Amino acid sequence: MRISRLEGRRVALWGWGREGRAAWRALRDPANGFDAATDLALFCNAAEAAEALALDPGLVIEPEASAGRLSAYDVVVKSPGISPYGPEAVAAASRGTRFIGGTALWFGERAGADGIVPGSICVTGTKGKSTTTALLAQLLRAGGHRTALAGNIGMPLLELLHGEAAYWAIELSSYQTGDVADSGARPQVAVALNVFPEHLDWHGSHERYVADKLRLLTDARPRIAVLNAADPILARLALPDSEVRWFNREDGWHLRGDILHRSDTPVMDTAALPLPGRHNRGNLCAVLAAIEALGLDAAALAPHAAAFTPLPHRLQVLGTRDGLTWVNDSISTTPHASLAALDVHRGRRIALLAGGHDRGVDWSGFAAAMRAAPPTAIVTMGANGPRIHALLAPVAAEAGFMLSAADDLAEAVAQARAALDGDGVVLLSPGAPSFGAYRDYTERGRHFARLAGFDPEAISAIPGLGIA
User: Fold this and answer.
1) Do 219 and 183 contact (CB within 8 A), yes or no?
2) What class has domain 316-459?
3) Hey, how many other C-beta atoms are within 10 angstroms of the C-beta on 248?
């Protein structure tokens, strides 16, 4: 949907975070075809209302996002974290209110006459999408191409609405993939890495999460879809409107041991690359398949992966203090992510800090894995900590690892220190969101760094955001 098509409609914003503010600026910019004098409403809390009114006294403040108030508007531009499946939103939608996100507005504005957004490469997946998107941007820039890095990785697309770039490396969460489909535009390339249970509280069920995640492929109909052949859900997809390119398959980009191959041709050894975990080195295959889908020489750009700077809060090695290596994987929000983090440090003594916001995700597979390859210790914490602890207690007794429970992250860190006694890895890979105790995974990771004795400011910046 183009912004100009909102003209003459009753429009509201829902959320005043960075995405909400980006949408407000886009709607108040007369260059985008929406009359800046038109009434614009904002659903927000009192503190946000004061900040918003200081910037825009003409805003109509809506303090309660009830079904009745939401249905008073034709279009509600909502922030990604707000679920459209809540009862208020569902009721308003049944009365005709349309809910869209800022991502939909950006795609609507950038589409060409054929519906394709030229140079757009959308990356999604339950795990690895941020690193994959950042690595994609780096390799394209290394090839001399002006490239934007934006989306869920930390910069709303609407902040770059009028930016000029040859290529757009765009990370999309499952909250945003449907926005691309709803925009009516099509990505030039869409990359799907994997699909595991995640964000069940937002989507309402595993089945809906999978369907929403896959809308980037099934409904947005990218010109080229780059898919992981090793993922069973993706491997079964039929996409009649897209050309499909596979990675992690022997006729495409794949790893044999640590050696990167294009079909049968060895390209480079990946063992020394600054990509933590085999899964991230495997996602280099996704990046190269996407670059190839753009018609570029991927093999020539592959060596530039050696200069990649790992992203904060993603298997981030903070350093060593008192004989302990501290690893910040705060972005880990699924048990599968925690298992991948443990695998990276296999062979060392590890104290894993696990638990957070409880979304009802099944940890039984994680527990089964602990029977075969347990760490030295697991400290549970957070709202789902007791549930994880109860599941792991018989496993710990059988497999022989230490298991303890903490009331908060500070106590968990203290217990991890004691368990390792000056030798090993303290690994924050909670396998659950941070909601409740922290604003987001970034705040949780920064607190972990501070508890470990590192400067939170020095470890938090995401390099390369924007256009370069």
Assistant:
1) no
2) alpha beta
3) 22
**Which pTM value belongs to this model?**
0.88
Q: What is the CA radius of gyration of the chain?
A: 23
Count of CB atoms situated within 10 Å of the CB of 390: 12
Kindly list the distances between the CA atom of residue 364 and the CA atoms of 335, 367, 381, 410, in Å, as whole numbers in the listed order: 9, 5, 17, 26
Specify the DSSP element, H or E, that contains 8: none
Query: 């914490």: which residue's tokens?
Result: 381
In angstroms, the CA 233 to CA 126 distance is 12
Please name the residues in contact with 220: beta carbons below 8 A apart, sequence gap of 6 or more: 122, 177, 180, 181, 183, 185, 186, 187, 190
Q: Which of 423, 410, 342, 340 is nearest to 378 (CA)?
A: 342
- Half-sphere exposure (Cβ direction) of 2: Cα atoms closer than 13 Å: 13
List, in sequence order, the alpha helices (H) in 345-440. Answer: 364-372, 385-399, 409-420
d(CA 292, CA 362): 37
Kindly list the domain boundaries of the chain, sorted by start residue: 3-104, 111-309, 316-459
- Cβ contacts of residue 83 below 8 Å, gap of 6+? 89, 175, 201, 202, 203, 204
Q: What angle do CA 45, 49, 52 make, to 5 degrees?
A: 135
Cβ(422)–Cβ(324) below 8 Å? yes
For the segment(s) 3-104, the CATH number from 3.20.20.150, 2.60.40.10, 1.10.565.10, 3.40.50.720 is 3.40.50.720
Query: Chain-centre distance of CA 253, in angstroms?
Result: 23
What is the spatial distance between Cα 331 and Cα 382, in angstroms, rounded to a whole number?
Answer: 15
pLDDT tens by residue, the chain, 468 residues = 799 999 999 999 999 999 999 999 999 999 998 887 789 999 999 999 999 999 999 999 999 999 999 999 999 999 998 999 999 999 999 999 999 999 999 999 999 999 999 999 999 998 899 999 999 999 999 999 999 999 999 999 999 999 999 999 999 998 899 999 999 999 999 999 999 755 556 556 778 888 889 999 999 999 999 999 999 999 999 999 999 999 999 999 999 999 999 999 999 999 999 997 888 899 999 999 999 999 999 999 999 999 999 899 999 999 999 999 999 999 998 899 999 999 999 999 999 999 999 988 899 999 999 999 999 999 999 999 999 999 999 999 999 999 999 999 999 999 999 999 999 999 999 999 998 899 889 999 999 999 999 999 988 888 899 999
Topology, domain 111-309: UDP-N-acetylmuramoyl-L-alanine:D-glutamate ligase (3.40.1190)
